[in-house]
Design brief:
Elements (H helix, E strand, L loop, with lengths): L10 H9 L3 H23 L1 H18 L9 H19 L6 H4 L28 H19 L3 H12 L4 H8 L3 H25 L6
Helix pairs in contact: 1-2, 2-3, 2-4, 2-7, 3-4, 4-8, 6-9, 7-9
Length: 210
């Protein structure tokens, strides 16, 4: 029996099937794209609004699909629609932080990363063999997740798209509709916050979300 993963020989076939309102095609698209769409929406608007944003994004995508020019992958196009829906919701909720504010210099942390985004000074090594260290590591991951949730919306989205979903900088530019230089700054700022969180946790054993 043909499965959802093998039902469509290429993306063009899938797109045409979606335009033709194929239920199988829609289930396939949901399987392939929905988790990433929800993750991005959560990064930008939080848990309470993420489902609504993704639902609206699907409605918008299905209406616009016949005019999709296929200059990017279908999933990247869908992610950009999610980002646009999230930005619209943020403006409606009066929670949008200006891009300029997120790009302001952070002199206290700028030296942590080089121009390519690599850490210049790594955090202290952990003793990964001890149960206490493993427990602390899990606690640290929870702490980092909590900290990321407090980041400005575009910083959080950029970090998650790059570090957790593996999108390229060019793809992130396309999804969030910002320049590559701005994406680099947003990623730089977000990584700085993660570094600060790790340092504070290692020094004090406590979570810090500043």
């Amino acid at each position: 029996m043909t499965t959802l993963m093998t039902a469509f020989k290429d993306e063009d076939t899938l797109i045409q099937a979606l335009i033709d309102k194929s239920e199988t095609a829609f289930r396939h698209a949901l399987t392939e794209c929905q988790p990433s769409m929800l993750y991005l929406a959560h990064s930008m608007v939080g848990n309470k609004l993420a489902d609504e944003v993704v639902q609206e994004a699907w409605f918008s995508a299905m209406r616009a699909l016949p005019k999709f020019e296929r200059r990017s992958k279908l999933k990247t196009w869908l992610m950009r629609i999610v980002a646009n829906e999230a930005k619209t919701r943020l403006r409606r909720e009066n929670r949008q932080v200006s891009l300029d504010a997120m790009l302001e210099p952070d002199d206290t942390m700028d030296s942590r990363f080089d121009s390519k985004g690599h850490w210049q000074n790594n955090p202290l090594d952990w003793d990964g063999d001890s149960p206490e260290a493993l427990l602390s590591s899990n606690e640290l991951l929870d702490c980092i997740d909590d900290m990321i949730a407090t980041l400005p919306d575009l910083q959080s989205a950029t970090l998650n798209l790059r570090e957790r979903q593996g999108y390229s900088l060019v793809e992130i530019c396309n999804i969030l509709d910002v320049s590559e230089s701005n994406v680099r700054v947003l990623l730089h700022r977000a990584r700085n916050r993660v570094f600060r969180c790790i340092e504070h946790f290692q020094d004090s054993g406590e979570c810090c979300t500043i």
